[in-house]
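Figure S7 source data.
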Amino acid sequence: MAYQSPILNVMIMAARKAGRPLIRDFGELENLQISMKGPADFVTSADKRTEKLLIEELSRARPGYGFLGEEGGVIEGKDKSHRFIIDPIDGTTNFMHGVPHFALSIGLEREGVLVAGVLFNPVTDDMYYAEKGHGAYLNNKRLRVAERREMATSLFATGLPFMGREGHARAHAEAAAVTAVSSGIRRFGAASLDMAYVAGGRFDGFWERGLNPWDVAAGIVLVREAGGMVGDLHGGPDALNSGTLLCANEYLQPQLLKLLKGVTPDKASD
Ligand code: IPD
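Tokens for the predicted D-MYO-inositol-1-phosphate complex:
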């Protein structure tokens, strides 16, 4: 039986409600008003509206909680011990191009610790959720990370920087190093769903540099609750704020970390 506490229910209902208009938008992409936030980083009216809707819904159920959102930044709450971390559309570029691989992402921090996460792809109707100590689920199905122990049989995911972002040479060198010793890598374009796929054992591991807390907050809870390890690319534990993240099962995480640390700056200069 899938575990859904009152707070998980609140987060799931908010994601479903805010996701509904997104399905319509997805079918009418040409009518969306698009504004440029930076090179290749589109922010749509849908993005802004979705964040507003999420904040309204979550605030109604939990007045006083604070927010960290991709669009609106920090909103201080009266309740200093709780904060939602939200990305209205993770995988914005996919969304803009009509690729149905994106998700609304809601993480919840209590006293600075991530305790719950919800990810919802409204097009596929996949609802991923997890609460600390209670496991991770996709719809009603329990998620577990894969058992594979060998790099050679493992499939990894990563994110590659695009125009205007730093670290192209390093990212490509890292991808080449992992490709050479594994069953391959995938770049699907939504970090949150990459992590959900690790939680469900589809991918054996995921790493990326240049990430923001809202890209990964919910995914961190999912992977941990599915039995996986999540940390940064220096071997530290702070995957939420460090900007780099690596996750995998307990066997592959150290192997992947060692391999990526060995990709030296002279081979990858930026
Ligand atoms: C992006 C996606 C992408 C990742 C980028 C993120 P956004 O989030 O998660 O997969 O490679 O680093 O910024 O901008 O679509 O919310």
